Amino acid sequence: HQIHLVQHPLYTSDQIEASGTPQAGCECDSFPLLLLSSNWHSVMLEKVLGITTQTSSALTCDPNTGQIAYPTGCVVVILNPRQNKQRHIFNTARKTVSALSFSPDGKYIATGENGHRPAVRVWDVEEKTQVSELHGHKHGVACVAFSPNMKYLVSVGYPHDMIVNVWDWKKGTLIASNKISSKVMAISFSEDSYFVTVGHRHVKFWFLDESREFKVNLSTVPLVGRSGLLGELHNNIFCDVACGQGKMSGSTFCISYSGLLCQFNEKRVLEKWIDLKVSLANCICVSEEFIFCGCANGTVRIFHTHNLHYLSDLPKPHHLGIDVAGEEMLRRPGATYSDTIALAFDPRHHWLCCVYKDHSIYIWDVKDTRQVGKVWSDLFHSSFVWNVEVYPEFEDHRGCLPPGSFLTCSSDNTIRFWNLENGTHVDFQKNIYSNNLLKIIYVENNTQHLQDLTNLPDRGENANYLDVKSGVRVMQVSPDGQHLASGDRAGNLRIHELKYMDEVIKVEAHDSEVLCLQYSKPETGMALLASASRDRLIHVLNVEENYKLEQTLDDHSSAITAVRFAGNGEIQMISCGADKSIYFRSAQKVSDGINFIRTHHVAEKTTLYDMDIDITQKYVAVACQDRNVRVYNTASGKQKWCYKGSQGDDGSLLKVQLDPSGTFLATSCSDKSISIIDFHSGECVAKMFGHSEVVTGMKFTFDCKHLITVSGDSCIFIWHLSPEITTCMKQHLMDLDQVQQQRKAREPVWGGFLLPICALYEEFYVCFHVAHPDLPPLLLSPAPACVLTNGKLPMWAKRLLGEADNADTAAFNSRVSYQPQGRWAERAAKEPIKTMLDADLNYFTPIKNSSLHDSELEPQNLNRLLSEVRKVSLAHQQEGSLKDDSCSHLGLQTELSSELFLPFLPPRPWLCTMCQSDALVSEAETEMTDVEENFQQTSSLPQTPEQEKYLRNHFETLADAQAEEKFDGCLKDLKAPEEEEEEAALFQNPRLSISTRFLSSCQKNSRWADIYLYFQPSIRERTI
């Protein structure tokens, strides 16, 4: 399928088959593109992993070939189960397909769609082209059906339309129509030229012959309909209907949600009805001999058409929570199964297709109802798919997954491993459930999210069934392929080892959903994991030390949408967020780990949603809300290019992804389109569509042959790139490899000469420190650019090697303190004015709290926490003074025992404007020094009854201990604090994640400084 071709400079005018003018890009400085043939733009949809069928109206079978058709967003998949091959029909209107029906001869297929002014379309199956387009509904089409003679096509609209239309689809005219007062769920044509609709308290027979007897001169005549005689069953909701075939062509069978199977005769009279003895029934399918009823809990009951005698049940599918890689298809007592929601019968092969609520498909051989066998099956995601990752490939076959594998995560609380290759793997043999699915990781034991609950019946007890914070939001595979990091919508971070698929670490990392995870590249020399969240914090974890917390960054003021590591030999971190800011940071080695220092800050005028770094680590591409892709230099932070990332005029860019060679980038827009763009020139190569919801993730495969996209419609699309695109990528990789080999060939010549110099430099530094112990450590410390981190050469040595890109890199790692600018800041001594900002650059980019260094990441019991707080508080009352971090900027030392008696005060605005002259600072420091001495001489015991009462009431909340809490009960059991306790309460959030601890510690440190300054009238009066 050629997908929305876009003009390219190398095309001639006769090669353009679709409109669109690409944005003119800048001069291309990439490797020259190959001479491309006319099919350069061909991007094929190779396979779809997913299904969006909700009822039997969106599942149909060709009675002649046995092919199954079902919707996957805006694409109709035509499946050949025997060959396991797919063909695809694209809805050119880009609207979700809601209903399907094969023609009796199997040559055509009719579709209905959702959205504004939906159309009923007829497609040629072989040519995959549109034959007819019929407009007669306003909101959506619920079901469509061909008449037995293929002359007419019937469509029923959504409840807001309240209309049923009969079309002459070959002429494109509406011949009959009528209003419907009830919600219609299904439709079925009989062999005697009438059709039946069922719905909410609705069973109605419509007659085409009688409608023709009305005024023939009118273009559209009223459609004649008569209600079925329901008797005492008139209050039921009928969800599906099927007219009899052969000898039973005069009978009509329908099924209700309550589990009643009803049979009507030719006179519309209810002859028989039986109770299926199930909690819920959804669908029905009829052949000449059997009636199949799809019910809850995976049940499909089989009855005889002549007398409604019960015969047997179909085998149940897999149970919810199945291990597809390790379990056989056996029934487990007490297991939960997914509901059956759609059925379609193949009369040629006697196969029954069943679609279940967890978005799985089974095709059963029902030729002998006593020995039913499975013909084909597949399991898909049942909810929003958030992310996709391609598993890295290794030459020595040390990977945990077969080559060509990829992973997806979803709101159904699963991480699924896929592989489309035909080869086998020692640890992952082809299972009996799916030819494409290797493994499923269930992040929670709760199975309620494994079923699609978007189309629940009108039952009150299910109104609030779903948890809005469920699902795996993002994931990342470690570069060595051994670990899988995943973050969920509740802020939890999990680490799975992929050899045995076990969860080894679970941490409450954030207070909100995790939006991005990123492992550092091996070239940086460090194994780090960055976790960014909607709570605007970034946590940096050390992988080599069992994911120990290294640092928490709080530069952003809004949700962080993307974070990336960059650099070859040097570690850089780049992040962007909804605050329209991009932060560039460089890593410095400190005594207890790694510290990231901010080097550049870019403020844009548009929201930034995603970014990716090219293979050379020199450029970062950012997807922006204004539909532009902005490319920045990772070393200098300066913008290099800016071009359109979408050919449309609506929406925003949501995702951007570079291919493994850095030649092309793929973008996804909120208008549900996908574009492939030349990275250096900005020329659009191809534009695709097919998803019915926004595309949430994209990845190029390492073989440069496929692009994998995932979306909120629960579907995974595998796009096959044209050979020309693949050739360009591979050629670029070969050129880069040659450049890298030439660079390595020069390294031994200089390396043997420079490494001894570096060793002499370190020896000189140590000897100088021994000879001058009286000098401050700051004067003895070398410049950060010269620190030999991870075996790197100093910057002066890199200049000799030619490895430093430009002068910006030298300044990139320099640590510059804040200094006021302008005439008002000038003094005779040319010294900067002392401010709170001058004390330490960590004020902007805090290092991890020392109290968190050895603490456990997992929360503990509240009772244990409070007991520890009491012990710590008593110990502090008897010990010496404790220096506060926030007050150390002013040289202040306080004693915790004295702080316990000070009431909680809100932050004051004059705290930020204090110390506005050098003399004031000197005087304040003198006063604080005097106060320190007074504090040290003061007893830690309460001196007044008021202090003793305050200590008794606020003893636990004022303890200087790190709060850790885990609620084992329900949140409803928590009691609101009293008014007198609410002001001094330290537990601001019942969920004590890493983010909560970090924010609590920052709030507490600023609180102690505010409290002390409040009790210093001389300072307060002079600073106001």
Keywords:
phosphoprotein; 1024 residues; single chain; disordered N terminus; 12 helices; four-stranded antiparallel sheet; Methylamine Dehydrogenase, Chain H; nucleus; 33% strand; five-stranded mixed sheet; WD40_MABP1-WDR62_1st; alpha+beta; elongated
Structure description:
- A hairpin with a 5-residue loop joins strand 35 and strand 36 (483-488).
- The N terminus and C terminus are likely disordered.
- The longest helix has 49 residues, at 723-771.
- This protein is an alpha+beta fold and 1024 residues long.
- Helix content is 15%, strand content 33%.
- The strands form 14 sheets. Strands 10-11-12-13-17 form a five-stranded mixed β-sheet. The protein has a four-stranded antiparallel β-sheet with strand order 1-57-56-55. Strands 2-3-4-5 form a four-stranded antiparallel β-sheet, with no helix packed on it.
- The protein is elongated, with a radius of gyration of 35 Å.
- Among the domains are: 1-49 and 618-631 and 645-771, no CATH class; 51-182, YVTN repeat-like/Quinoprotein amine dehydrogenase (Methylamine Dehydrogenase, Chain H), CATH 2.130.10.10; 228-377, 7 Propeller (Methylamine Dehydrogenase, Chain H), CATH 2.130.10; 836-1023, no CATH class.
- The chain is built from twelve helices and 57 strands.
